[in-house]
Amino acid sequence: MRTERISVLDSTEPNPSARASRGGSAWKMADLSAVRQELRTRNQSSSFGEPQCMSSQKEEQQRLAVPFCGGIRGGMRSGKKITIMGVVNADPDSFDISLTCGCGDVALDMCVQFEDREILRNACVSDSWGEEERSIPYFPFIAEQPFRVEIHCEHPRFRVLVDGHQLFDFYHRVTPLTAIDTIQISGSLTITKLN
C-alpha cells in the first residue's frame, strides 16, 4: 500500500483546475486504478444492497467513512436507484461518485468541482476514458449543506437528480449493466446515508 496514492481520494486532492491542466480524466484514471484495491479491502463488508446489523451509530459512521467503496448487490439494472445522502464539507475542493465494474471499467464518474462550479462526467472502458460531459442547468451543492443525490438506472442512461431536481442524463457506455457492481465515493463530503 502506498499512502501517497490513497491521499488522492481524501480531501487533500489537488486543485481541480490543476488536474484539468494535466489531462483531466487520464490523470484521474491512474489514481482511481491505484486505490481501488485498497478501498475494496478496507470496506469489504460494505455492500449497501444487503442489510447489516450495526450495534452503534459510530459503527455506522465508520461503515460510511470517506473514501468509501461498497458493492452493489446484483449489479445495476434498469429500474434500480442508488440514493446518496450527505453533507458537503466546510471548505470543499471536489468530490467524486463513481459506479464501476469492480476494479475495472468505470460506468459513471461524477466529479463535483467547487472552484469552477461544474460537474464533470465520464466513463472509462478498457482503460480508455471517453468524452467528458460538463453541461448542467445549475450547480446544486453548497458548503456545509446537506444534499441527496439519486442515480436512476434507466434503459439507455443514468438519470441523476439532486434534491429531487433533475441535473443530467448520462448515456450508458458500459454493458452489461449487471457488471456495474461497485460504488466509490471520495472527496470533500460526509456520507450520512446510502441505499
UniProtKB/TrEMBL annotation:
Q: Tell me the keywords, alphabetical order.
A: Lectin
Could you tell me one molecular function GO term of this UniProt entry?
carbohydrate binding
The record's section on SMART domains has: Gal-bind_lectin (SM00908), GLECT (SM00276)
Domain Galectin: start-end pairs: 68-195
> Is this entry keyworded DNA-binding?
no
Q: CDD domains from the xrefs?
A: GLECT
Which Pfam families has this protein been placed in? Gal-bind_lectin (PF00337)
Q: Which InterPro entries match?
A: Galectin-like, Galectin_CRD
Q: Which portions of the sequence form the region Disordered?
A: 1-26
Role summary:
Does not bind lactose, and may not bind carbohydrates.
Descriptive protein name: Galectin
